[in-house]
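User: what does the whole thing look like in 3D?
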Amino acid sequence: MANLTVALDQSVDIRDSRPRFYGLRRLARKMVKDRLALFAFIFLILIFLMSILAPLISPYDPTTGDIFNRLKAPGVSPGHILGTDALGRDMVSRLIWGGRVSLRVGFITVVFSSAVGVFLGLLAGYAGGKTDTIIMGLVDIQFAFPGMLVALVFVMVLGPSELHLIEAFAFNGWMVFARLARSLVVTFRDGPMVEAAKAIGVRPIKVMLKHILPNILAPITTLFVLEVARIIGAEAMMSFLGYGIQPPTASWGLMIGEGRTYFPMAWWLIIYPGILVAATVLALNVFSNWLTTAVDPLQKGQSG
Amino acid sequence: MAQYILRKLLGAVVVIAGVSLLVFILTRVIGNPVDVMLPLNATAADRVRLAHQLGIDKPILTQLGEFITGVFHGNFGESWYEQQPALSVALERLPFTLELSGIAMALALIFAIPLGVLSALRPRSLLDKVTSTLSMFGICVPNFWLGLVLILIFANTLHWLPTSGVGDWRYLVLPAITMAVLPLGRITQIVRTAMLEQLREPYVVTARSKGLLEFWVVVRHALKNAGISIVTMSGWELGRIIAGYAIAIEAVFGLPGIGSLVVDSIGQQDFPLIQALTFVIATCITLINLLIDMTYPFFNPRLKFK
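Assistant: Here's the predicted 3D structure for the full assembly of 610 residues, as structure tokens:
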């Protein structure tokens, strides 16, 4: 009986020593203190709500044009607060629907790339030896890859579409997660917690997923947010070049690409979508920075 | 030393071969250029003739064999649209992009290093806050969009600079600035972080206590030790410029570099040219990475090429 209590006590200690998320209330208090992070968070929530509620709040259909209302400047035509594009489509509606596409591509891509990357990273770090050498060799090769170029070729060959864009980006994005996960696993692998789990005969796959993964989730979450930001920027660039989201669907990058022909006279065609891309990417970056310091107090001061 | 370089070179060859093979598989196995090159009403005979002419009707392994033998002779086949050797078409465009990215990189470093060092010396000062905010913006603004906005302001509205195309130095101002903004932001951040780390080290205290001028403490001791992270990040950014930013920025400014050629060749499904371009770009990136590795012992003599 005495032995059992000791074991329990120890397990509590080990649990407390791991860097994990603070209580939600504490996180909320920290958020309010950090003005910039608070703004970023509120902005992100607004963008999310806008994307989810697009069918309800969008004043017009984003793909139906109005020949008589082409290229109207903001405020000129009643009912089109931010003006209309070259086909007479309402800018506000297209911006709202465009956010939906950007967020969808960003999140779905990173869900896949992080799942694959984290799993391979865990495997490499936990198994070590040859497995480690092979997986990390692949990671090194991927890091030296001209990612955007490969994505362009990929999308060209398969035909530009949202699905192929996601596949191309996920293929180019898994290795950052693999490298991070591996570096974190290595610090845990030889710790008492994993040793204990192994000693009582837990299967390796379960050790990896139930005992190691929860402990490294915090840094992976911050990388996840950063990657979503990067993919949103990349999607904008590919769509801008014409190899991403295809017309008539609205996407911020595509809107900039379509507006390019007219922009010397019609600045609103490119300014608004560009600001939204920049602001969303910025907000995700600020939020990720804040998350890093909030969940891991040791990093305090690093981000200023 | 020789062994170290050999191993790195081997790694570089693996990467270049990997990229080339991937693009080969993508274009030859999955893609079909005949559909793109011929009008919709082309007959089956036309298709067969064109496929034969392009050499894509042979078994895939034969094509791969021919491709690999070709590469060793520096021969990527003829560009389908330019009717010239693909490799020379690609190499012809390379110097322009290298020049532009060199200017952009120099611009980024000239501002990033002093700004990063000064921010690290006075953390939380006004300068630090302004620099941090601006570098964050630089990282987040999509650069192709920034290019368009700069054209709108400085070319279309103020008429100070030309909108696009090539000519004297004034044509390079906006593209170079557009290209420099993202690396500027990233390098400033890395300089600041690396310097903050180094300035906490005991050797800095020693240097100060022996009466060395603060300028030399910072430049000769701290900055030199921070050098590895700065050079690594700069090299990565240079690689990203050539393989990524240049594609969109050259398209925005209508510049005749390798980036706009990438967009054109992909639009035309010019397989040999795409293959040659990926080879050239992958080689550039791996060479840059190799050069970065070579500089490490200068910053830290303990890293004597193991």
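In plain terms: Residues 214-253 of chain B form the longest helix (40 residues). DSSP finds twelve helices and no strands in chain B.
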